[in-house]
Amino acid sequence: MDYQPRDRRSAEVEGEVGSLSSELLDVLRVRGKVTKPGPMASPCQVEGGGADSYRSVRHPWSLYGVDNKVLERAMRNLADGLPQRGWKIVKQGTDSSRNRNLEILAVHLESRTQAEITWRKGLDGHEPLISFAVYSRCFRDPGLSSTPTPETAPAPPTGG
């Protein structure tokens, strides 16, 4: 890891990632169906001890229910609109799949949240959609301490 994880509460980061996902939906400027699951915190890998208090928040979602012409316009809107909303596009082009799906990888400059966005054209028989994976950097949730405190340490056995 090339950065020091900050101390943040999981609920705070979930809210931030959810807001950024909503912002991405606004930048699309198209109407379609959107999958429902919200952001969720899960463990992230860190070197050394105390790993169970480190988290990252991930929000996978998709826009679907519209044709490829609409999805193409949505991807153009993202490419044009992300920089105006504080995102830096670090990669834009086709992926390595047989379908040559268009993808955008972007980083939100203030929060360092990342977005992996892929237009899946449905050439393989599946419904066309744009998939999003929006995720935070690893952080330490001080409410999830891996070191027992007097309040969380197990009670010593009683003799008897």
Give structural notes:
By secondary structure, the chain is an alpha+beta fold. It has helices at residues 10-28, 68-81, and strands spanning 33-34, 40-43, 54-64, 87-94, 102-108, 114-120, 129-135, 139-140. Strands 1, 2, 3, 4, 5, 6, 7 and 8 form an eight-stranded antiparallel beta sheet that branches. Strand 5 and strand 6 form a beta hairpin. The chain is elongated. It starts with 9 loop residues before the first helix and ends in a 20-residue tail after the last strand.
What's a quick, concise take on this entry?
With 160 residues, the chain is an alpha+beta fold. It has helices spanning 10-28, 68-81, and strands at residues 33-34, 40-43, 54-64, 87-94, 102-108, 114-120, 129-135, 139-140.
Low-confidence parts, pLDDT < 50 over ≥5 residues?
147-156
The dominant shape is elongated
Helix-strand topology string: HEEEHEEEEE
Outline the biggest β-sheet. Answer: 8 strands, antiparallel
The residue-averaged pLDDT reads 86
- Indicate the percent of residues in helices: 10-25%
Roughly how many Å apart are the termini?
49 Å
Rg over CA atoms: 20 Å
Discrete helix count: 2
Beta-strand percentage range: 25-35%
Topology:
Layout: H1 10-28, E1 33-34, E2 40-43, E3 54-64, H2 68-81, E4 87-94, E5 102-108, E6 114-120, E7 129-135, E8 139-140
Antiparallel strand pairs: 1-3, 2-3, 3-7, 3-8, 4-5, 5-6, 6-7
Task: Pick out its properties.
eight-stranded antiparallel sheet, 160 residues
